[in-house]
Specification:
alpha+beta, Mannose-Binding Protein A, Chain A, 2 domains
Length: 200
């Protein structure tokens, strides 16, 4: 199985595990009504048997504030400690700010003619975006944390770009400390992490 096919299958499994209320939860392996990250990993691992292991480390620090995930081909924003800087791990904001003002700043689109260098986005790229639910869940390679290469391991709820179909005022989010997916009102303040690369 090629890596692309593996990614497609993992994405399909993640969609199945986030079925709407009332649907049969096929990823709930222990029958408790919830899908944990452990159950997700178990389902994905079962689907991906026979795949070749990665030739090197999964997460690579690019030395420019970004991290490449060799398992998915995605590039992620690397967080730093703190609460009040652009890439601070514990900086929180509402969904609209994350999808708009903050993301524009990550991409270097700061309206300041006196500082043209501000037009250079993170790592020299200007196509950063907020991840989908499936993309963000792919980062939870250890329970309950993100890989240390990605920055400080803080317990936070992270926004995704996925608006809830049943409620446009809510968006999908992932709790890093539990690895669970939740729907949350877009006006609340949560963490956010940028990604660039393959689109689902």
């Amino acid at each position: 199985m090629t890596r692309l096919n593996a990614l497609i299958m993992a994405y399909a499994i993640s969609l199945a595990l986030t079925a709407p209320a009332g649907a049969t939860c096929s990823g709930d392996l222990d029958g408790d009504g919830h899908v944990t990250i452990g159950e997700l990993v178990s389902a994905v691992n079962s689907a991906l048997t026979g795949c070749d292991p990665l030739p090197g480390p999964r997460f690579v620090d690019n030395g420019n504030g970004s991290v490449t995930d060799n398992a998915t081909g995605l590039m992620w924003e690397q967080k730093v400690p703190g609460t009040d800087c652009l890439h601070c791990a514990e900086r929180e904001m509402d969904w609209s700010t994350g999808m708009g003002e903050w993301l524009s700043e990550v991409n270097g689109f700061i309206p300041d003619a006196q500082h043209p260098e501000s037009q250079t986005g993170l790592g020299g790229y200007t196509d950063w975006r907020v991840p989908s639910l499936a993309e963000l869940r792919s980062l939870l390679d250890c329970f309950p944390c993100f890989n240390p290469v990605l920055g400080p391991d803080v317990q936070c709820i992270y926004w995704t770009s996925s608006t809830l179909g049943s409620s446009p005022s809510g968006a999908g989010a992932v709790e890093s400390n539990y690895g669970t997916t939740i729907g949350i009102d877009k006006t609340t303040h949560q963490c956010v992490r940028a990604v660039r690369g393959l689109r689902r």
